[in-house]
Write a structure and sequence with these properties.
427 residues, mainly alpha, Growth Hormone, Chain: A, disordered C terminus
């Protein structure tokens, strides 16, 4: 029997790459306005921001490719080598973004280098979730899979919190000139510290016993066979991931830019709101993950999606009516609790849909395609919606759409694939 210390090391080692991935994405999203000026200068004030937002999305285009290739690699070579490879690629991509010269120094080459780094980051991130979630699920005790799986989503909240702390610090304590000249690089470069720690921890892991047994005994399933045999599970999983992705990228990644650019709040205040609300989301993700071990994944997730459908429009309307730090913080606190009900159980729900032999591949496919469609271009989509509709409540409509998508998928899962109880020995 493993000790608490061993289990803690396993959880940290498997989720640290997810933290790095999301920290990088969120920090980049926070800094879109500054990055736009440095890498895509233009006389039109809107064009640079749209170009930077599109570059943010470009990395998501590469995610399905990385997800397929690295997911297959994880199911065949092992979870551990895949996770080590992914972390190394992430570290290189982050270094390029943080250290790359800007447009005034090397011209259009700076823009191309940034796009290249985002593509590499997308490929590496594509292999992270499926491989890490498969290992975490296969290590978990049968009656605590929801609890263990919740740490995947908790680390996304941790990443958002740390990125918000970095964003708040540089916007609060650096002058505008310092922030524009070099301060914007600091939050990105801080993310590099995760790489060596994660590499060390992952080298000490062993493959889960369930995977070792299946790796030796089960015939390998082709990629085409996965699509043909598990299409229903892939569609349901895609809907769930699409729903939570819209929530994550609208309520966490886009909100600081939304607060500054459209609500006209002081630059540091939206970051401070996320810093305060972040720990609430972390804690509640774990609480709802553990609760799903008792009540079932779909019960907990459906309740969260329904609550979001009900409260999103009134909260956004209340904030937009009289923008202030107090109102933004209050809304973020409510969103942190309610969205955690959707996020906490979802990793385990996805893992339970697929057998061990194809788990990493199947989750990588559905997670990355759905994240690309519904998340990668969220900043671009929301900017376009607000501009074309002339409506500051456009983000609320998008969140409601994501919540309905997640709710329908949860109901479909409960009706057609009632596999959300504690796993069987086959897992």
């Amino acid at each position: 029997m493993r000790t608490l210390r061993q289990d803690s090391r396993i959880i940290v080692a498997t989720t640290i790459g997810n933290a790095m991935e999301w920290y990088d994405f969120i920090a980049f999203g926070f800094l879109l306005g500054i990055i736009a000026r440095h890498f895509f200068p233009s006389s039109d004030p809107t064009t640079p921001y749209l170009m930077a937002a599109a570059t943010f999305g470009v990395s998501f285009v590469a995610r399905p490719i990385g997800g397929i290739l690295l997911g297959i690699y994880a199911d065949r070579a092992g979870r551990k080598p895949a996770l080590i490879l992914v972390l190394g690629m992430m570290t290189v991509a982050t270094a390029i973004v943080g250290l790359s010269p800007d447009y005034t120094t090397i011209g259009v080459a700076a823009s191309l280098l940034l796009v290249l780094a985002r593509l590499l980051q997308g490929i590496s991130a594509g292999g992270e979730f499926g491989s890490a979630t498969a290992m975490l699920y296969e290590y978990a005790p049968p009656n605590r899979t929801g609890l263990y799986g919740s740490f995947q989503m908790m680390t996304q909240a941790v990443a958002g919190f740390l990125a918000a702390v970095a964003g708040f610090t540089v916007t609060r304590y650096l002058s505008a000139d310092q922030l524009d000249a070099w301060g914007w690089r600091l939050p990105i470069l801080i993310g590099l510290l995760i790489g060596p720690v994660g590499w060390y921890l992952r080298h000490g892991l062993e493959e889960p016993a369930a995977f070792k047994a299946v790796q030796k005994q089960v015939q390998r399933v082709s990629f085409g066979r996965v699509l043909q045999q598990y299409w229903k599970q892939l569609l349901i999983a895609g809907g769930l991931v699409g729903g939570i992705t819209i929530l994550q990228f609208t309520l966490a990644v886009f909100m600081p830019a939304y607060g500054v650019q459209y609500l006209k709040l002081q630059a540091s205040l939206p970051f401070l709101a996320i810093v305060i609300a972040g720990p609430v989301r972390m804690i509640m993700c774990v609480v709802f993950g553990a609760l799903s071990d008792r009540l079932g994944r779909t019960t907990v997730m459906s309740a969260g999606f329904i609550a979001l459908v009900i409260c999103t429009y009134p909260l956004f309307a209340w904030v937009v009516q009289a923008p202030s730090f107090a109102r933004l913080l209050s809304a973020e606190l409510v969103f942190s609790v309610v969205s955690a009900a959707c996020l906490g159980p979802v990793s385990t729900a996805l893992a339970e849909m697929f057998p061990t032999a194809i788990r990493a591949t199947a989750m990588s496919i559905t997670y990355n395609i759905a994240t690309t469609i519904f998340g990668g271009f969220t900043p671009f989509m929301l900017t376009w919606m607000i501009t074309s509709m002339h409506d500051l409540l456009a983000p609320a409509y998008y969140v409601i759409f994501g919540s309905l998508l997640g709710l329908v998928s949860s109901m479909w899962l409960a009706r057609s694939l009632p596999s959300t109880a504690p796993r069987t020995t086959e897992a």
